[in-house]
User: What shape does this take?
Amino acid sequence: MSRLLVCPPDYFRIEYEINPWMRMSNQADPVRASAQWHDLMTVLEDRVGALLERMQPMPGVPDMVFTANAGVVDGRRAVPSRFRHPERQREERYFEAWFREHGYQVTLLEENLYFEGAGDLLGFPDAWFGGYRQRSDIRAYGRLSEILQREIIPVELVDSHFYHLDTCFCPLSGGELLYYPAAFDPYAQTVIVNRISEDRRLVVPQPEALRFACNAVCVGKHVVLPTGCPETVAMLEARGYKPQPLPLDEFMKAGGSAKCLTLALD
Amino acid sequence: MHAAQETVLLQGHIIDSLILAKVLDTILMMGGTFDLQEVRIGGTREEPSRARIVVRAASPELLKEILEAIQPHGASVERESDCTSQPAPADGVFPDAFYATTHLPTQIRLRGRWIDVDAIEMDLGIRVDRGLTAAKAIPMGEVKQGDAIVAGRDGIRVLPLERPRDRDVFSFMEAHVSAERPHGYVIADVARRMQTIREQRERGKSDVKVLLAGGPAIIHAGGREALTWLIDSGYIHVLFCGNALAAHDMEAHLFGTSLGYALSAGRAVPRGHEHHLRTINRIRAIGSIEKAVRTGVVPEGIMAACVRRGVEVVLAGTIRDDGPLPGVITDSVAAQAAMRRALPGVSLALLVASTLHAVATGNLLPATVPTVCVDVNPAVPTKLADRGSFQAVGLVMDAASFLRELARELGWKA
Assistant: This one.
């Protein structure tokens, strides 16, 4: 059974602007946001069959709802994030505390070595990919590959709309990759093509990429993704997946969707 | 001005991710160059790789731009420290851990800034001035107690030679010595450089010089007229030689012989072996070579041309010298110092038919000075090349043939 870390959106608001999606003037509606979040949880628990670990939300850290950025978990080891923006650095101690309280072996990266957790580090069983340039520092992957004893291939993110790897790159349980190539520099595009055979690459069209089709949660054959991505849904169905589109537009106001709201714990 | 350079490290999964390729491409695309000093590829997929890259650019500004462009891809400037120095324990003694120089352009890091080492020459130490703003290469014998001498290896970098802009024999920068290869094009290139230097001097740039270090075989073999013409025509500005070249040059005028051989007939003349002694004795009686020239005793020849043209002559003595002639420096350390003082500005060096002077001069010259070594014995240019004077072009040929051909190339009619 898949375990996911989530954090209720009790304090979720747009309190600052640190990505192109965020506008203080385009405030999230707390009631709608709460309803969308609870719908997501219902789908994850009931239809997808995931086990949810709920964190205690804290005032003053509105983006803590995006638990994908808590850190990265590999077996019983956890490496908490080091956020680039001071606004999100305040979340670090809560995430670290949660990992420690739940028995994870915590390894801390040195300060100023930016790494934004599973938002930027995603993988297939044989190779992990690390997004850099927008948020995480490429140097973090050298350190993480030592800590985790894994190959981590850094890929450069070149479009600030896709500021985390999980906004444009989604490995699926069957070995396929759902991704949006234009978010990557040409070297990274080449590397992805070299590493993932053509029949496993599912390219998301731009309009759906901009709706965060790639910010999907894949558990088994279930893929939970934002609504408004019919071509992506069709591609997934053609591969035998069961897409679960959900309205998550309140979170899009902060630059996040289904995947950002969860952290895979195993 | 040397190219600016910085060493960067790149580590992690840099090969399959094309990060190394991207960094190298970026350097080139921005107009820089690089040397991959070390590439260690991880033995397994999980194991990281590592590359050490020297980045070079035409200016410090461009270098900074390149470094800023590659740093986000993980290229980190290698942690650098200032160089360390230790006080010389006594006059003429370097501290134990002194850094021994090469003849390549060298910089040291002082208070975070890289500065050029002045008067670079191989096998010296580096003295740092009290204000920590300048550094100079100095020989062991010149150090004074308490001088700050660079020690260890931190904060020191040796810059590789840039390929000369002129496309001639020197631009290959190879220590190639062969008796088989044609001499003509080498001599033509040397002549072209001498022509350029003379033109620069005529336009008032007096700090460019051609140096000739030569042995007495120049006289024996019949190269005296050609060399005299080259000096008289303003192509040679510094002459390094010993007692013998000067003695036989003046013997040729006074007696028509060189070491007793009639230069015109090519055979020994009776009591010819005394001629060089009588020459030396005559000049000693006069008091100096210059006086002998100015009073008309020796009105022509190499030494006379040097006096007339104001060529700086350093006469360095040896233990087998007869006499010696007045002006010969018999203290070899003092002779070395005199040669060193004459070097600033030398931009072409001709080392002709003298093992001793060729090697001594080769040791004193920075690697940036193009050098031609001419000797009938291939061992001499080879020896010079082996010592690391790799910008030296070696010609295995007779000194007189070389000088005559060179002079003809420059317009000598004889």
